[in-house]
Structures are given as structure tokens and as C-alpha cells.
Amino acid sequence: MQITFVGCESIEGVKRATGEAYGPFYKLYYLAPVQTVSSATRTVSGVGFTPKDISITETVFHQLKAIKPLQKVELVVEADPSNLNRNVIVGVKAAAAAA
Q1: How many other C-beta atoms lie within 10 A of the C-beta of residue 5?
Q2: The domain containing residue 34 runs over which residues?
Q3: pTM given for the model
Q4: Nearest-CA neighbor of 74 among 53, 93, 89?
């Protein structure tokens, strides 16, 4: 699956209420084409891209740090062994240049 990479981040900290540490959590931010949606009560239309995010592993986070924003990236996706109804990103690589 190919995406336009926007950025990535690591999130960790300490809960104010309990002082308990949380994270790190890793996020990938990317651009997806605007999707037209139409139902009986709602219509969404437009042109361009909309920002999206997805959780990633620490390994993928470190791979993404080497990629410049707005580059096309090929996501390496596999079935989640703990839930075969879901996919997980296991790696990334720069997308092949268009001919």
C-alpha cells in the first residue's frame, strides 16, 4: 500500500492524576485522497487530500525517521497474528519513482 508520508511521532509521559508513566506510543501521519460519501442524511465531497494517522511499532517509527515528509512510501503490511481480521504495518520503504 502506497501513502504520502507527512510525519511520525513518539508519545510518552506521566499521567497527572496518578503519576503513572504511559507510552511510548508511535503514530504515522499520512495524506489520503478525499473520499466522497453520500447517504440519506449526509454528503461529503471535495478534492485534494485529508490527513490521517495510524498506530505503528517502534521499529517502523525508526524506519520512518529516515524518510523526508511528503515522499511516497510503500507500507509493508501483514496480518496481525493476535487478530487475523486486522492488518499491522511491519515495515516501510521509499516508493519506486514513477517512470
Answers
A1: 21
A2: 2-12+21-94
A3: 0.81
A4: 93
